[in-house]
Amino acid sequence: MCHPGGGRDPEFLRNKLDSRLRGNDTTGVMIGVFDSGFGGLTVLKSLLEKLPEHNYIYLGDSARVPYGNKSPEVIYKYAEEAVDFLFGQGCKIIIFACNTASAQALRKIQQEYLPVKHPGKNVLGVIRPLAEAAAAKNFKKIGVIGTTATIKSGSYEIEIKKINPEMEIFSIAAPLLVPLIEESWAKSREARMILRRYLRPLKLKKIQALILGCTHYPLMLDEIKSVMGKNCLVFPAGEIITESFKNYLSRHSEYEISSSKNQTVKFFTTDDPKKFKEIGEKFLKRKIEDVKKIEL
Questions:
Q1: Contacts by 275-279 with C-beta closer than 8 Å and gap 24+?
Q2: Residue 149's domain spans which residues?
Q3: pLDDT band at 70 (very low <50, low <70, confident <90, very high)
């Protein structure tokens, strides 16, 4: 079986992906994707499109969403539980698709937890790839929107300034957006009003680009672009994260696996599987046949 670019036509890849989303058996899952709820599905969607030769497990902790208003200690505890579950399911590597978990728990997980509990395995986050993409641009002013915990951490400012210390960064917490998106209110008039209020200070600063510091926010991408206007680039988070992960895999041969006819994507939630399926299909724009409920 060929890797992307190895001669398979788009229809083959579409049929292959549809088969995987139906939950066929697999020889083993390699990549775990963790989010506080549904937002990480925007990352998973890009991974499925760009890296279709791999297997995936998605875990959405919807019972405890949002993470953004919780303490660093609680966020870290949730992250530990997710890591244990996903590695216990056979994952070889995990992506924290949640910006809040990436900001508040990732470094400690990598430096202290993994060497003791899961030696030889790794967890990656989403903040560094986006920060590197932003810092590489020749912009003077950029904005960041995210959850309260992500913005308070200053993670984006720290990572961007390491590369481009001259760049001005303006960050805004937007705590109401995740609950609205999780409740399928992203397209409502109320959500648009709240979004405009959050983004107004950034418009007044005349930023040239905007980082969506939460994987839920691409579900409001059209609305965000409409508010910010044509003179502001909104970074394509899913594409940037996937490309960074692809590069990481190419440099770490220990994560290579042999392709199989029966690769799958498995879905787990800590809340209502029916609701996850309904909303998840909107995120992925594909059918999901099976979602399992778990407790962490």
A1: 275/62, 276/38, 276/60, 276/62, 279/38, 279/182, 279/184
A2: 128-237
A3: very high
